[in-house]
Model the fold of this input.
Amino acid sequence: MKRIYISAVCAVLLSISSLFGLESYRSILPQLSEAEYQTLAQGGSLNGDTLGGKDLSTMTPNVGVMGERMAQAKENSDEKNFALAYVTLIPYAPGLSRETDSERQLTIFNTMRQISTQKEITYLSSRHGNKPYPLFKESSYISDPKDITSTIPDPVLEELPSSLVAYAYQFDTTFDGNVYQHTFTTSDQEIFLDITNMTPIKFRGITGLKAKALSMCLSTYQTKEGILLFSLVEVKNRKPEVKILFWSVWLPGAFDKRITALSGWFRDRISLGM
Done:
């Protein structure tokens, strides 16, 4: 009994020392103001966009794939290319804080792939009086990007891959059904997910964005204080406003609400311990 107790204590101490060995979120986001650091520390979020030439580099992690992607977005930003960013800090749930860095990284990765549970999430819909409204009618991984009926359960891996490509089908309550490519790139600290539309995104049956014109990225970083979640939306070769017959869609607003909803979904899933 004494040996078991000592082993348990050692395991807890090891996981705690693992957390203290991580960088602070402040070092990953070195250009924020003290007020912005406090916003993140208190559970808030920061967001912005490149419209009007705004520079998002101050709220972008200075490490990993996401840092490189934001640099590209900044370089490509003009009247027909724009980007939106969102960042928040998620405290470690008790279960996560007891895991080692590598165990935690695998847990985060598998949580990011629970896309069947995205069917349950809502967003603030302007078309429904700025009230919560379901974002997706359908959401699942598919084994064949050319067959939307080839649905498969949310995959669960036992080892963290350095990279992985998968395909998903989601039926958006505004933009109809679309096939997306999910490209993961991982390291000891970062998990980067790039979501690209493989089919045209349509509004009321009319194409608003061509295939591969949209890239939605989610990137997580293990820090001393919690999981830093950074989200980025890039829209290429498309002006911010889309006019279709009698309707007008302000794309920055539409995708800002979606990236906020998806970030909230991840926060809830990881806080619940999957």
